[in-house]
Amino acid sequence: MAQSENTAFDYRRRMCRAMNFINENLTRDVSLDEIARAACFSKYHFHRVFKTVVGETVSGFTRRLRLEWAANLLLADSRRSVTEIALECMFSSSQNFAKAFHQHFGATPSAYRKSNHGNKLRNPGNAKALRLRYDADTMFTGPQTREVRVDMNPEVKEMPEYHVAFVRKVGPYGKVTCGEAFGELVRWAGPRGYLKTGAVFGIYWDNPEVTPPGKCRLDACISVPKGTEAEAPLGFQTIAGGLYGVCHFEIGIDEFQQAWDDAFEWLVGSGHQCDDTPCYELYHNSAEDHPEGKWVVDICIPLRRRG
């Protein structure tokens, strides 16, 4: 088996471990760290790899399994109330459960129960068996990754260590939070000449599909000489050097999420394992300087060395 195929299978195998761990713990709220440990995977990158391999976010996958569990319970015991089943399946109220159930199955819980055909053969509303086990050998039988976009030009390269000054903001990733963070950084770095000599980075510590938007952390960074004195509100940190998968993009402001998805799609099929350190964005321009208002940016994913 080629190295890339072997590594892609290993990703799938470990994501199956995670899926089985979630399935075995539907009656409690497990943390993302617990699920990542069950899959023997880096906490920094687990969620993105899970979404790439499985096609659902961790929270979306968990919610679907709970809804399918509830659907089976509705059919299995008509004496139990909808509210009782909703609470057992970890929904906060019967109202929230009913809304989620209707969105998923296209019927209210009561109507689904009365139809009594939820698990009949070829029924598109079928709820899967409660004790389903996920196995990489049987679950993933066809091509598992989309074709890598041709304009991404991914490469594996040695990246240097960077000593950076940074401004940290906490809040929803988007124009407001990013604008505040990079605005403060530019106001500090510009008069000191660092915008002409330094490289500019963004480190997004949290995944907004997991962390509440109001608690997501962003570091707007610029490389500076070692020994530069700290001045509020800035701090200093080191971006680790080493082997990285570097994916190049020229994108609009609304295309960053898709770019990250594409970068991890490449990673899963690349034959490389990600290392246990954060990814970062390396910016090559300001959108104001681009004729089409686009960002030229590298998404840099740390990789483990082979052997």
Key phrases:
307 residues; 11 helices; Multidrug-efflux Transporter 1 Regulator Bmrr, Chain A; alpha+beta; 8 strands; elongated
Summarize this entry quickly.
The chain has helices at residues 3-24, 32-38, 46-54, 58-76, 82-88, 94-105, 109-115, 136-139, 175-189, 194-197, 256-270; strands spanning 155-159, 162-170, 200-204, 217-223, 235-239, 242-251, 280-283, 295-302. It is α+β, with helices and mostly antiparallel strands. It has an 8-stranded antiparallel sheet with strand order 1-6-8-7-3-4-2-5.
Low-confidence stretches: 119-125, 141-145
> Mind telling me the CATH class of the largest domain?
Alpha Beta
Number of strands: 8
Task: Tell me the radius of gyration.
Answer: 23 Å
Structural class assignment? alpha+beta
CATH homolog superfamily of the largest domain:
Regulatory factor, effector binding domain
CATH topology descriptor of the largest domain:
Multidrug-efflux Transporter 1 Regulator Bmrr, Chain A
N-to-C series of helices and strands: HHHHHHHHEEHHEEEEHEE
* End-to-end separation: 17 Å
Average pLDDT over all residues? 87
Roughly what percent helix?
Answer: 25-40%
Named CATH architecture of the largest domain: Alpha-Beta Barrel
Q: Please outline the major beta sheet.
A: 8 strands, antiparallel
List the helices and strands and how they pair.
Layout: H1 3-24, H2 32-38, H3 46-54, H4 58-76, H5 82-88, H6 94-105, H7 109-115, H8 136-139, E1 155-159, E2 162-170, H9 175-189, H10 194-197, E3 200-204, E4 217-223, E5 235-239, E6 242-251, H11 256-270, E7 280-283, E8 295-302
Antiparallel strand pairs: 1-6, 2-4, 2-5, 3-4, 3-7, 6-8, 7-8
Helix pairs in contact: 1-3, 3-11
